[in-house]
Amino acid sequence: MTFTESDIKFEKINWKQFEELCYDILHKYQFHSLSWRQGGGDKGRDIEALFTVINPIITSYTEKWFIECKHYSKGIPIEQISGKLDWAVAEKVQHFVLMTNSYPSIATAEYIEKRQRELNFKVHIIDGKLLKQKLLVFPDLVVKYFADDAVVLIQGMLRQWLSHDILPDIVALYKISKLIDARALNIEELTFLFFAFESCDYEDAITFGDLDIEEFSFDFLIPTIVAHTNSKFPIKKPKDLNFDSRIYFLGGGTSTVTTQETDHLTWHYLNLIENNRMIDIIMVRKNKQINVLISTGTIISFKRYKYSAPKFNFSIKNLQKDNDIENNMI
User: Fold this and answer.
1) CA angle, residues 116, 119, 121, in degrees to nearest 5
2) Cα–Cα distance between 67 and 23 in angstroms, integer?
3) CA distance linking residue 94 with residue 105, whole number of Å
């Protein structure tokens, strides 16, 4: 899945979870022989690790690293670092790393810079900003430490659909609608949920199904989807759509078209959202990944767009629903 730095909220985890997070990311970056020194008396490091440098010209060599993890809400003071560097000198390491969700205070940064001149090992600082960038390389770690339960559930549904073409049923969608905060979802997750709802037999299930659920919709997702606008309006029709659904839109109805061949699916959604504004969405699933284009614009700009339409024996302006298309096409 795709995450941004805003998805990583260090305040959601405590100091011990932060140390575990640092351990996990070191492992991801090919450090080995890791030792997480939990409890008191860590002797200058929370984690000790080895890193083997593979050089194609000379013999490979292994270096000793000390990693100090600091989960702070403000700048890290000098006294939290000075003794750690002394231990690194005594233990003859090659590298010392300060990993933190915050940052060294100005005084601490200056202290480290001065100490570096006399030390025979390199001091590295990974502050909160850089740590987020490192974490984004590994979405599974972002999910493990920062995603809430509802987001994890939706991500599982999305993976199930991408891998096995199985969409959540109406009961699952109903429960999700009561749990989710749309702001916690990215553009792919938002569009997937909206597509899943639009693809289910909602009206039949509510009217004829023996289900203990009340009427619901996913319209509450639309403002957040609109916030992810990433294309000009209207979106240019993908080549794999065998016709352009926008010619069926009447400025008040809804137009949805789905085409699918094996693992390749294209979904197009067009609707009026407020006043004379419209939303235009195209989602493409291919090779177990999805790409989403979202745009918004006015009915006036929509009507100026040129479309090539098949022949009909009815007036397009009177068309209201997709099933009318099937009944009226020549």
Assistant:
1) 95
2) 9
3) 24
The string of pLDDT tens digits covering residues 53-102 is: 988 888 899 999 999 999 999 999 999 999 999 999 999 999 999 999 99
Token readout for 184 is 């916690």
Describe the crossing of helices 187-199 and 170-179 by its angle, rounded to 10 degrees.
140
Do 175 and 93 share a structural domain? no
The phi, psi pair for 258, rounded to 5°, reads: -125, 130
Residue 98: count other Cβ atoms within 10 Å of its Cβ: 23
Report the C-alpha gap between 63 and 65 in whole angstroms.
Answer: 7
Complete edge-to-edge strand list for the sheet that includes strand 289-298 = 254-261, 264-274, 277-286, 289-298
C-alpha radius of gyration, the chain, whole number: 27
Domain match, 9 and 139 both: yes
Cross-strand partners of 47: 36, 67
Classify strands 103-104 and 75-76 as parallel, antiparallel or unpaired.
parallel
How many independent structural domains does the chain possess? Answer: 3
Given this model, what pLDDT does residue 273 score? Answer: 83
Residue-range definition of the domain harbouring residue 210: 148-224
Residue the block writes with tokens 């939303």: 279
At residue 236, what is the residue type? K
Q: Per residue in 92-142, pLDDT tens?
A: 999 999 999 999 999 999 999 999 999 999 999 999 999 999 999 998 899
Let me know: does 269 contact 198? Beta carbons within 8 Å: yes
- pTM for this prediction: 0.58
* Same domain for 137 and 195: no
